[in-house]
Amino acid sequence: MIGFRAGGNLHNAGNGETYAIEPSLSWGFVAGMSLGRPNLIVEATYLQQLTRASTENPFAGGEGNLHDMRLQTVLAGVQWDFSPEARVRPLVSAAIGATSLEAQGGGQTTSFTASLSGGVKLMATRNFGARLQLRALALFAGGSLKGLCQWSDCAVGLTGWGTLQADVSVGTLFSF
Prior knowledge:
mainly beta, Porin, three-stranded antiparallel sheet, eight-stranded antiparallel beta barrel
């Protein structure tokens, strides 16, 4: 799948500033398996976003410090396919998992993540088609604010309950 992921904020507990996670392209894949009923599918999802914080040096320090970020999300959940035999198949899904936030320079923190999504499968044949999807992601706080700041003494990360993101994606679908 290829998509566009947007939203999310990081908070600097040291100076009170908030930094937006910039929107950017995302990519990933979804693998699923039907559980007896053709419209109930258990699925595993991997998503990755390469992005930046909205400020030049949010993690303190000198020129080119920790502003580039990579978000990797792994989810497990279920999908409901409303019309499993039709050419146009509306779907909804819910999943839980984790998102790893990695900052330039090696800082890293992980947050519990929940996802709700809706979309449609457009089938060209019985076993081949495209999947279009809109996914809402909630990244929950709970990790250390020092995780993203491996080389400095900053305190930047998810605070409060966490942050929200949205991902719009399209991908090729193979069904067996």
